[in-house]
Amino acid sequence: MNTLVIKKEDLKHNIEKIIEFASESGQDDKGNSLKIIAVVKANGYGLGIVEFTKFLIDNGISSFAVSTKEEAFSLRKAGIKEEILMLSACSIKEELKELVENDIILTLGSKEDAKAIESLGEELGKEIKVHLKIDTGFGRYGFIYSKRDELVETIKNLKHVKIEGTYTHFSVSFFDEKYTKLQFERFINVIEVLRMNEIEPGILHVCNSSAFLKYPNMHLNAVRIGSAFLGRLSFKDYLGLKKIANLESEVTETKELPKGFNIGYSNSYKTKKETKIAIVPCGYMSGFNVKAEDDLFRFVDKLRFLKNDIKSLFKKEALYAKINDENLEVLGRVGAYHIVLDITGKDVKIGDKVSLEVNPKFVDSSIRREFR
Fold it and tell me: The pTM is what?
């Protein structure tokens, strides 16, 4: 059986490091310490949304954000009563009502959202809690930063909406300082316009994990942390975070292959000598050797990926899995559900545990999660 093993001590270490770094930011102009909003979207970044959220609560985190109503409802159904922000905007009244009934803070990012939320608030006879979303150059949800008059006109007459926060989302904070600063300036200009029009924006948050670590001057009142809890960053780690999870499998078969024997699809590997192999029942469908999408990077990075892909046609980059704390090479291509390891000269038996480096986000949801 394959299991995604989450190392509790390493996760706790990362939480402590993040809280410590947040506390070093000091206090905002109202004397409040920096608020950490834990983003637990995508099934808790693959860790299991309910278990991950409960662990965060037990270790000092009390505010959360999700991307879908199903994620929000799963937390409420599990008895989690802490604050939850819905990061996706919505103007479908039936869905908004479900969210409000479950005490989920809504994102308001358009005239249509405002109309639907105001109508629902009037119908329910209550103020509905929202965070305003400002689109400073990401191109998804939110009022476009340059249409400030439209934003003010939309917001100022709402009687059944309580603005508890305002935020934006950075698109390239992990490598492009110039554009990130531009987005930040656009956001601050919008906040100034809101205040000039006597609209209180609530707590302000712009930083994701990357910006949280790289730009302390942009922390404002709150930060949204997701991948940093897992110790998985797209740039140099400044805090000494640990990768907290690995995929655990087992050897299901061993055999001797003669010299010149093909292994795996496309006959991409041929044994150079008599080789002993172990077969392990995990592959790319289990999340092994699955990487983040190439479109997260700059054009120069895409060229680098293309160059590496061409090189890989002629020279395969070695992959490894661990048995008894020893790295063993993966032979041939990674299959959907199996890999083959070279165990020549090793004391490896059927049933031995195998540890594999994976990104939890890409581990199939059917695979069991275990916090140890």
Answer: 0.90
